[in-house]
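Page header: ASSEMBLY MODEL / two components / 1212 residues total.
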Amino acid sequence: MEINFVLNGRKRREEVCPTEKADAFLRRIGMLSLRNGCNGEGACGACTILVNGRTVSSCLLRAVQLDGQEVCTVEYYSKRRRLDAVQSAMVDAGVVQCGYCTPAMVLAIEKLLDRHPQPTKEQVREALSGIFCRCTGYEQFYKAVEIAAKRRQDPDFSCEYAPAYVKDHRFVGKTGRKIDSSHLARGENAFVEDFIPPNACVMKMMRSPHASAYIKSIDTSEAMKVPGVVYIMTHENCPEIYYNQAGQGYPEPSPYDRMMIGHKVNHVGDRVAAIVAETWEAACEAEKKIKVEYEVLPHVLTVDEAMAPGAPVVHNGYVEYVCGAPDDLDEYNKGVDPREGKVIYQFPLRGDAHHNKASAAHGATGDIEKGFAEADEVIERVYETTQIQCTPVEPHIVFCKMQGGRLVIHASTQVPYHLRRIVASLIKAPENKIRVIKERVGGGFGVKQDIVLEEVVAYLTWVTGLPIYQRFTREEEFIASRTRHLAKIYVKIGGKKDGTITSVYMDVKANTGPYGAHCLTVPMNACSKTLPLLDVENMEFDVTTYYSNLAPAGAYQGYGAPKGSFALQLAIAELAEKLGVDHMEMIEKNRIRTGSVMNILKSLGEGREGQAEVVGSCGLGEALERGRELMEWGKKEESDDPEWKIGKGFSIVMQGSGLPNLDSANAEVRMISDGTFIVLYGGADLGTGLDTVACKLAAEELQIDPDRITVWSGDTDATPFDVGAYASSGTFFSGGAVHNAAKNMKKRIIEVASMLMEVPAEELHLEYPGKVVGGGKEMTYWQIAHEAESGVGVGQLMAYGHFIVNRASVPYGAHFAKVKVSTRTGEVKILKYCCLEDCGTPINPELTLGQMYGGVLKTIGHSLYEEMIYDEHGRCVNANFTDYKVPMISDAPDDFISEPIITNDDQGPMGAKSVSEITCNGASPCIAEAIHDAVGVWIRDWPFSAEKLLKAMGKLPENKANAD
Amino acid sequence: MNSGRSQAYEALIDVSALDLGTVEKRDGFIRIGANLRFQDVFEHPLCPELLRAGFKQIVNRNVRNMATVAGSIAMKSPCSNVIAALMTLHAEVETADANGRRERVSLESFVNTSSEGLLITAVYIPEEWTGLHCSTRRYSRSQNDISIVLADVALEAADGKITRVSAVAGGVAPRVVRLVSLEAALLGQALPDAEAVGDLVKKDIAAISDFRGSAEFKAYMAGQLIDWCLHMAVDGAECCACGCEHKG
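Prediction written out in full:
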């Protein structure tokens, strides 16, 4: 049918299908700024448009409902490549991180300012209330709106968008537009979904309804007859190649325990059949016609179930080792059922698959029993964390095509090079036959470190020769991608009355779900990023990871540290209370300082032998001091309302900056014909601003404006190898490689200039903007490039940089929370939150702050309400944004403060350390301590729900919660 | 993208083009046209304060810009802030059947009986209830969450005793529930203590357990929130969620 409407000021007449959704229709006619993050629930707001001047979620509308309406998208504000006041304000304030929600936010702010030219904070919150942003923590949107309001009156308005933390650089440490932010604010094509041609086939995955079952039979014959269906892969025609989907350095410390589609399904949502069809409708129709007969098996969901004697076994098949096989392996494998498949360890991880144990580790320093004997008080506590989904607004998506006999993969990934390697192993082709292009990523947070859909689509493209894409639904994002490992952590800790901690033992039992991606390293991280904070002689840990039939776990921002931090930091607070010692004094007495030796790291290598490290730059003391000042630490506050009690808490945190001796990064800098530069590096910017980091580091070193440097990244054909964006390696490793390449380019420029200028190299230096000066002469980069590229020149100037370390810089921080707790209802409200992080040199100050706010708000969500919940059949009952709650702007603390603590680290590029992941480690323990300070109860498991608090306060009987 | 593709429906009827009126006073009632958007009603000066507070509990502005009063009523959701507020105000629902025959029934009756084949055309709120002291409070996990437990109260008190009262709980049971036992017990009495209120609330609701909370928790919360609302209303204080001035 035909509809007539006004789109962005122009009359349009379009043919629509009566049931076509408005967001899909608008994208079909070229409005690419419309995004979709919730599959039509109307919960994420990424599809926001203006209809007759009001913000609405277009996924809740049919295209026919636009008939007669006036519709506006962000394209209206993006004419002639301009940025209007709102867009430029958002760019300047640093709220354009991944950019997936940005067009929606632009529209909401435009209308807000139409209604209220000088809006209050409450009006800003109300205007943005329907749009989900997982990256920013929302806080800087208030600044963005303030700038936009002023810029609407005065287009030249500018101000300090974020503090300049570093004085002695021109670009590094100073605000400056994120290099892709204008593009994203205009809603231009950027993400994988924007590059899928109309003739591409779609891949739909048929998924298991059972938590554990053999596929007795599967018949696709009727499905193949559906017009438009071109190929179906099941376990019967899937190559028998085992691999792990974890995007980790090879050989991975994760077992190869799956095929693309196996004979046995191991969780609700596991793969049963991959259907390739010309249309989504045909794929859906085919799915209905596939006949599957399951032999349903008993399942295990919890660690306790998985480790129980006689428990159902998730992987009861052949176990193999690439190296280090135990002598009794043949005995171990006797009588296994081939339908169970294999588990192949690259090297021993102390796993016992036949007893659901995926991996284990142990380590110690000192003698914990001696330490406990010396203690005046010893406490033992168990802390539990839940399964959390990373929820990037852009779900997983991939588009693959054949080009010139090679496979080209357009991916939203954190690990382009690991993706290439894993796909190569599955299609049995050398890596030079594959090109991975990382497009802009609409949020990663760890979930896009793993290869959870790319490999199947790539394989099917390789087999069929067809262009194919797959985009996860929101439900698939929950049940078939990656989640934070659940953990049960036992802590035994002893201390003296003077506040000295004498001994610590941690026993981490983690639940990895059905496949062991990151099964060793995530739980180890619960110890390796927490215990080294303590200058305690006696420490020991055990880590065991169990398989279960829950949805798969994997990496999530913070990795294993948030749960370990929750357990250990809270245990210290509990011990302090028990000893009658001030918690802050206890931390000050036992924390590490610059020069301390972190001996426990000797036993905390990631699948390799670790090494003790001396603490380098450490801003922990300054972070604690600043936090105490901001939070008015020690001042007991009373609420005006007797129902509500106020309490305060704090925690200290650390992380890493990539993986020493494991990670590596490479970069190249090319001077081009007019003396400008192209930087090529393998890093993967997920919206964090890594490309801008690369640009600024090069600009600083080469003394040239950042807009004279083009950054190209994450393209395996064009850019040099990099392990990818994970383990907080981006700024440190990838940035470090760019910095090294820029330093080498600087050397080369001076070398060539010396020859051309006939001035000794040691007398020359680079001077802004882009010239070499010395010996009373100067030469511009343009002149140098021109000479170099001439018929008698030295050739194009190119420089290469490599970055590896055997000791990575460690970021530190302190978090402080002030909460109020209702003694009537058990509700918890965060009144104030302060996040202080020592991230070395914050290269992009506004983006550093955004990373900090974003990480904190995610983990406030984890602490208070985020949780995947299962029924007894292993089905996740809240795999959507209506039932699984994520923090929106109205959930952010009223008083929300993030400040970097500046240290100059001697390892990282221009003193930089990592910033993002560490911000996830502090919320849970400091909120839990604040709750205790308010109402006197310790809540030891996530989330800190009202029901749990009521039970802890004795308002409800302690019996089963969350029944049914 | 696949997620945005068309879906199959037996029938899809868009009623947005129907002119079902605005917000107006009519014969002792405030009449609200059925397909008015929440935000339209919210911003209208005739919108009763309790209903305005109910709209404000729906934090998502995009939803308020799209959702209609009739749509919300037709959904009959147990967590509906709008139904709870309207039921507390003793609202009536006007419907039209396929023959154009109009009928008005109490909202309570409407949500508890089948309404197949009916089109909601308007909601009528008796003005005699809109001037009372009112209060509402909800419990949800996050601000954009549905109301897991919801309490709405409107009352009139004189000489420390309650002379008229309407109390409704949402979220706890399969439908929004009028708390008839509580209402009856309160009439002519001073406010009892929280425990007594909680016991009376439990008489009127058959709380259900789900992943958001156990039945026991929800029943307890309903009692606490109702008790809080009763005190707020009696004290003539401001509505908790909207900051509105109480009437009366």
